[in-house]
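Practice problem: predict the structure.
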Amino acid sequence: LRDKLLNKGDKLITVEKQGLLIGKRGKKYIVLKNDQVTLLGDTVVLLGTLDEYLDIDQSKVPPQVATVQVYTTTIPVGLMLLHKYTFSQLLKITKVQYTKVPFKNGIRIEPNEYKIVFSDFVYIFDKTDRVNTLLFAGLAGIKELKGMPVKNVDNLHGLINVGSLISIDKSIITEVKNIFNLFLDPMTINTLTLMEEPTVMEGLLFRAMELLLTDYSPLATDLLYQEIMGDKRIAGLVYKQIAMGIRNYENKKSTSRAKITVNPYETLQIIVSDSSTVLVDDLNPIALLKQTEDVTYTGFGGRNKDTLTRESRKVHPNDIGTISEAVKDSTEVGVSAYMSADPLLDGTTGLIISNDDELTKANIFSPTTLLFPYNDLDD
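Answer:
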């Protein structure tokens, strides 16, 4: 829809380097970046925050909250982090500015403030601290905390104590524990290290809230934000089966017969039946080369090609240099393709390097095309 706002000859990817395109005044674009609305033109005009631009009464706007979906239950990130930190530790780690006052009925707060009410103390926070609001406003929304003293969340049983207060099922609490212990496998931790991102679950939650502060997000088809998986998928599959065994054990360990069980035949069956698995063609060296260069969105852990819409099949500018001209002329068009002879991969990691530098023919074309005589004369 944003494409329809563009002036003739302009590209969305160029305009949105300055912010998310949200409107237009004449031929000038209105963009949103870091909650600031800006009018682009010969001179850039700041139009204020999004609330000011839309003339929204801030006192009537509920604070934004970051949540995590666990099974069918939505849990505020602030509550989830009480599994790893005490309430006092969260206040210290985030360096949030707050006011702590003894509890009494009818405490008045300013329009730009919100409060977490316990039975003995009230904590007052500022909405304009956006990242910390995403964290603490989730606790402010739990009205049942009014019947609990703050000491009940000032220990590492805070999640359990609050969970029992608001009737969160025990299986949800157990799954939160599993998420912290099992969500990151060694390969993912290595990838996160290369990306200079946090390598523990709690760190990723804090990082995710920082990323929520901007309204910009890359297209789902942008290779710079993807990883091409090779044989690591096999190790990932084995890890998932082990993790499932541990999850089942955690849910049943209250019984004396509980044990960790991993079915090796089920793991092998998934590998054999995976739609992206084919027999090695070692009789034809070119066919063997093409098999190693074949990339797809489908397969175990991937997507169903029937759900991939036109937008999901489009070629992204950042594909150039990694994905070659060789694409499948079938229902898998835009779903499966072949890498170029010298793809812009960051070593053996599967991460993609930007194609800003000048590209060679080997970066652009597939080996099949490069080996084809007079391919530039083919009509």
